[in-house]
Design a protein that fits this description.
Layout (H helix, E strand, L loop, with lengths): L2 H12 L3 H32 L2 H25 L5 H21 L5 H29 L5 H33 L4 H23 L19 H31 L3 H9 L2 H14 L5 H22 L2 H37 L3 H29 L2 H16 L2 H14 L1
Helix pairs in contact: 2-3, 2-5, 2-6, 2-7, 2-8, 3-5, 3-8, 3-13, 4-5, 4-7, 6-7, 6-9, 6-10, 6-12, 8-9, 8-12, 8-13, 8-14, 8-15, 10-12, 11-12, 11-14, 11-15, 12-15, 13-14
Length: 412
């Protein structure tokens, strides 16, 4: 890569506010941890129970813990610095993995406990991360911020699943150490990295939201559209988080395969995303968003038609591209709506971050129920084969909603 290009991009990065850069570096450290939390906790549950429904129930417990932690976090912010609560969320993810490792066996109660603990960690992390992001950026630099942040997550999804999967499967295949030892080692690594991320976030000068009411039940009509868009995003999140685990371990076999397949194709996605964030403008968000949804629909179609190792490979390739594209476009849209509507209604921006989580939760719940109902009435195989296509097709309905929101925000 040309040295002048690297220096130019570095100086461009340094031109942004310090708090924005501190937040990006903190999220880079946590991005190293996130693939382990999202992929291998579920994989370990499936390994120990051999029950696909237990993985979905775990994910439901995670999703249930998040919005209630948002509520608790809102009250705690009146007394505790936001950087400390942000750190708490990152550290609790290690606690959740430790709980999983110390349980003698995984039953339904244990899985629910792990899920709720992990959900609480995500709640503290995402709630404070969203507020820090909206307060540290402007609409003009959010394409760059969220694309760069998504590049971090994409690159770590190349490296970490491959390394962690290799570490687990190699020890088992060579007889060097049991899988449990590998998972304990990964848990220790999670604690170390989340500690470093916690130290990093305290280097910024971040302000808490104002001590105002943040629970409301009536909102501007445009915000209700944003909630609907959030519900659609929640459905996709449910699918993106646990379906790859089930598909890969069902058709291909072990954690080494899980890590390798998740990594394939992500490097090109990272490069693509960086240039999107570097050169795209706010008016390009709807095209980025639409492209992500179409690619995801294509992946769901491949999985349903082929329903084989080849189908899993093609679905995961599409998912590796679709998820970052959707995130890179969705978050700037959400932040811009919050900026505009909070000004109209004269409310704390945190109120909208809190309320938005319940829109996501409704979608996540629906996404999990699609699988559970399909597995109960038909079979787990039918659920894995057709649920993704249904979810992907429903997602396309969010394109006109997003387009209408973007147009409305231009007139406010």
């Amino acid at each position: 890569m040309n040295q002048n290009f690297v220096l130019t991009e570095y100086h461009h990065y340094k031109s942004y506010p310090r708090n924005m850069r501190i937040l990006l570096m903190t999220n880079l450290l946590y991005a190293i941890v996130l693939p382990i939390l999202e992929l291998f906790v579920g994989a370990n549950i499936l390994r120990q129970t051999n029950n696909t429904s237990y993985v979905v129930i775990y994910q439901l417990a995670v999703y249930t813990g998040i919005p209630f932690t948002f509520l608790l976090n809102g009250f705690l912010l009146r007394h505790i610095k936001i950087a400390r609560l942000y750190s708490l969320g990152m550290m609790m993810s290690g606690v959740a993995m430790t709980v999983m490792m110390t349980l003698p066996e995984l039953n339904l109660i244990g899985i629910a406990l792990i899920g709720l603990t992990m959900g609480s960690s995500y709640g503290f992390f995402w709630c404070n991360r969203d507020f820090l992001a909206i307060s540290s950026t402007t609409d003009g630099n959010r394409n760059y911020y969220f694309s760069l942040e998504t590049v971090f997550y994409t690159i770590t999804f190349i490296i970490m699943p491959a390394l962690a999967g290799l570490f687990i499967s190699l020890g088992e295949s060579r007889g060097w150490y049991p899988p449990r030892f590998a998972y304990i080692t990964l848990t220790v690594m999670v604690f170390i990295l989340t500690t470093l991320a916690s130290v990093m976030v305290h280097q910024g000068n971040f302000q808490n939201p104002k001590r105002e009411r943040f629970v409301f039940f009536k909102f501007h009509p445009e915000w209700r559209k944003m909630l609907l868009l959030g519900s659609f995003k929640g459905i996709a999140q449910a699918a993106i988080f646990f379906y790859p685990i089930l598909l890969i371990l069902t058709f291909i076999g072990n954690e080494g395969s899980l890590g390798g397949i998740v990594a394939i194709g992500s490097l090109l996605t990272a490069v693509f995303l960086y240039f999107i964030g570097r050169f795209s403008k706010p008016e390009h968000r709807i095209w980025i968003f639409s492209l992500g949804l179409v690619v995801y629909l294509l992946g769901g179609t491949f999985n349903s038609i082929l329903f084989s190792a080849a189908g899993v490979f093609l679905y995961q390739m599409c998912g590796s591209l679709a998820r970052p594209l959707l995130d890179a476009a969705y978050f700037p849209i959400q932040m811009n709506v919050i900026d505009k509507i909070s000004g109209i209604e004269r409310r704390n921006k945190f109120a909208y971050i809190f309320n938005h989580e319940f829109g996501l939760y409704a979608g996540r719940l629906a996404g999990c129920l699609v699988f559970l109902v399909s597995a109960y009435w038909f079979s787990p195989e039918a659920a894995l084969r057709y649920s993704l296509l249904i979810i992907a097709a429903v997602q396309v309905l969010s394109i006109p909603i997003a387009k209408n929101l973007i147009q409305k925000m231009k007139t406010i």
